[in-house]
Amino acid sequence: xxxxxxxxxxxxxxxxxxxxxxxxxxxxxxxxxxxxxxxxxxxxxxxxxxxxxxxxxxxxxxxxxxxxxxxxxxxxxxxxxxxxxxxxxxxxxxxxxxxxxxxxxxxxxxxxxxxxxxxxxxxxxxxxxxxxxxxxxxxxxxxxxxxxxxxxxxxxxxxxxxxxxxxxxxxxxxxxxxxxxxxxxxxxxxxxxxxxxxxxxxxxxxxxxxxxxxxxxxxxxxxxxxxxxxxxxxxxx
Amino acid sequence: xxxxxxxxxxxxxxxxxxxxxxxxxxxxxxxxxxxxxxxxxxxxxxxxxxxxxxxxxxxxxxxxxxxxxxxxxxxxxxxxxxxxxxxxxxxxxxxxxxxxxxxxxxxxxxxxxxxxxxxxxxxxxxxxxxxxxxxxxxxxxxxxxxxxxxxxxxxxxxxxxxxxxxxx
Lengths: 237, 168
Known about the structure:
Radius of gyration of chain B: 30 Å
Mean pLDDT of chain A: 91
Radius of gyration of chain A: 22 Å
Number of strands of chain B: 10
CATH class of the largest domain in chain B: Mainly Beta
Number of domains of chain B: 2
Number of domains of chain A: 1
CATH superfamily of the largest domain in chain B: Rieske [2Fe-2S] iron-sulphur domain
Number of helices of chain B: 2
Oligomer: heterodimer
Structural class of chain B: alpha+beta
Number of strands of chain A: 0
Low-confidence stretches of chain B: none
CATH architecture of chain A: Up-down Bundle
Low-confidence stretches of chain A: none
Largest interface: A-B, 15 and 12 residues
Structural class of chain A: mainly alpha
Order of helices and strands of chain B: HHEEEEEEEEEE
Strand content of chain B: 25-35%
Number of helices of chain A: 11
Distance between the termini of chain A: 42 Å
Helix content of chain B: 10-25%
């Protein structure tokens, strides 16, 4: 079995995909494994022992990221049964709960992960603040983190309209009327966001696209940048 | 070739390299600004399926004094008061846009609460004036006109409390 594995790992195809030579024996091999991997590259090759202690960071950033991954996966699955149109949206949401196999489970997983993500991102921010991790040279990563918090809240807000029930409708009405109070361009922003003067078909599609494409895409890039900056700013001490 | 260019750099004015990069950057900038403008225009819909601004209620001889007619499609209360005069007020709260509810009985005075907002608890009297916050101002009053024997409400024309009445 081991021989077979060594044979595969020495084959031409394997070597063309993975640059690192197996088996990993030395520290150099271990660091090369990090350097040569796209997904591992945002991590440092070496971390201090204290940095991976639970009571130091409470793993809040990682928990937030993990919840984001759950949200992407469950969200994509929910998209398969959802049409952002009136009256389909509400019916689809009810179908997901009572007709689709495991639909209720996925919808609740998405919902609870969303709530938990807001909480964990907020707690992560508090942890960073109280441990002084926003101080130079990490001040820009704090700014990126604040943008990520705002995007998290915007994801919550845009997702809230999608079931298109009474709760959604009035929450978004209140939110859109808050935006109206922005000086000078408030009314214009509201018109662009709602695609009209009141919540209607266009609003639902706009919130759907923001919720499923634009904001998650922006978040993926910012999360990658956020992780990479941790390394570039000197890691955890 | 290189030495020639280096020499020309020291000279004042513009050389070929600077000229071409200026043209190139300006064209790129122009296209970028244009693209942003076009996109912003695109985002703003030209045709929206919203209700027309005017609607009719009536005929007036069927509406008794001290009556409130709620038009949910237009979010408007059409009221005939105790003197037989008509007026129309919006049911959209001036605080954050929730739909307010008529809760008062017919024979209440102006100082009593006639309208409640379910979202944040604003209270209004039957003329639409604020009795209790957080609403910053009274409900919007619309122009009412007589059209044959019906009441025509024009939600595009907002009037003050004094000129909102239509006496028939």
